[in-house]
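The methods section describes the discrete structure representation at length, but only in general terms. Each protein is reduced to its one-letter sequence and a matching series of backbone shape codes. I believe one specimen quoted in the main text would settle the matter. An entry of this sort, consisting of the sequence and the corresponding backbone structure tokens, reads as follows.
***
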Amino acid sequence: ESPQHAVATPAAPAPESHAAQAAAALKEVLSPATPPDRRGELQMLLQNERERPGAWRLYRPVLQQAAAGGGAAADEAILWFALSACEASLRDATVALSSPAERAELKDDLQSMLLGTLPPSVRGKALQVLAQVARATWPAEQPALLHSFISLLAQPGAPRALGARLLSAVVDEFSPSAHRGASAGASIYSGL
């Protein structure tokens, strides 16, 4: 086969480029200047990206950056999208966060993120996703998980407030009458 006829197989984009591409698409979706047909096209692409098996892994660096203290400076839309990708993976039993270690790492990322400064809508979404992690991992994988949330109440300041919000979110998540996504999902980002 001659080099002229060789088919180039593109390398898989780096996780950072996935986040950058999603952030650009989100910015365009949220722009009032975006025509409705283009907005609909982008929303469909973002929906497919979020629901793609393993997408949460591509957006975990966004959460880790926020957990490391970059939450206040981060783009609210991409943080919301990254959390939505995690949420989609938690819902999909066939490709969910595949190992207990991954779920524990996500729990740690979310908890660290929540102790920092976040936009209110992102904080609500992060609480909701952390409650979903609790539902997926307690008691089988992390029998001390709820105790760790309760122990936050004994600490002063931000950890105490986080403990109270976490317990409330967990109660909502475990409630049989809970309307999933109704509390934190009522944001401009919920349709993305």
Summary: The chain is about 65% helix and 0% strand. The first helix runs from residue 15 to 30. The two ends are 44 Å apart (CA to CA). Helices lie at 15-30, 36-51, 55-70, 76-91, 100-114, 120-137, 145-151, 158-174.
